[in-house]
Amino acid sequence: MAEIKLERIKKTYDNGPTVVHDFNLEIHDGEFIVLVGPSGCGKSTTLRMIAGLEDITGGDFYIDEKRMNDVEPKNRDIAMVFQNYALYPHMSVYDNMAFSLKLRKTPKPEIKERVEKAAEILGLTDFLDRKPKALSGGQRQRVALGRAIVREANVFLMDEPLSNLDAKLRVQMRAEITKLHKRLETTTIYVTHDQTEALTMASRIVVMNQGDIMQVGSPKEVYDFP
Ligand code: ADP
Ligand code: ADP
């Protein structure tokens, strides 16, 4: 369960411009929010503030009524999937997925159980001993998803997770992420510049431009198709 509330959220980089301008957004439990907008409009910055990878320079951010602005990233109930997968090249698939749990001192048997369950969901059971370089692009992307799933976090943040895949694989992974969301019902914010992804995956679409929210609505409302 996780409701996210952003109140007059703002980001000004040190000695730089303000790239997120005091916007408000409420995300309900289990929603799949797709965040769209032109390159440089502040989508990644917004995700990174929610994850705690960037300081919030104004406004307040809550998960389930708890103010999160100053909570350390590792203490946020959030898992993030990046565009470039950010897998550790020298670690096996198993260890890539186990890593964040080891950091959090999760007991070994529980780590094993969670990694094996995630691997089963993602079709990675036969690949646990491989290194990332011995995997296809789609398999690597699955490992990146697996690292998020094992956390059993209540919030998923995904920053253009499919943009490095070829068109065919993108379609396939899009369906898999939708299926995963149906199964786990984790509150998700998904950044993309791909209109088809927004249309097919979103429960609501948030349109950003120059650090502001322009529009929030269902795919039908935002794209106004018949
Ligand atoms: P998007 O994800 O929508 O492409 P970003 O959030 O990455 O946009 O970037 C928003 C703006 O913030 C851009 O103008 C970008 O150049 C600027 N920006 C991003 N990261 C930094 C940083 N570390 N320091 C200064 N400016 C940054
Ligand atoms: P350690 O070596 O740290 O004592 P374990 O005895 O739990 O850890 O496991 C040894 C190593 O085997 C782990 O670090 C992990 O990389 C790998 N491993 C454990 N279970 C599996 C599994 N089901 N599939 C693939 N590799 C596994």
TrEMBL record:
GO BP terms: carbohydrate transport
Residues annotated as domain ABC transporter: 4-226
GO molecular-function term, one example from the UniProt record: ABC-type transporter activity
Highest taxon, organism lineage: Bacteria
One term under GO cellular component: ATP-binding cassette (ABC) transporter complex, substrate-binding subunit-containing
UniProtKB keywords: ATP-binding, Nucleotide-binding, Sugar transport, Transport
Protein name (record): Multiple sugar transport system ATP-binding protein
The species this protein was found in: Salinicoccus halodurans
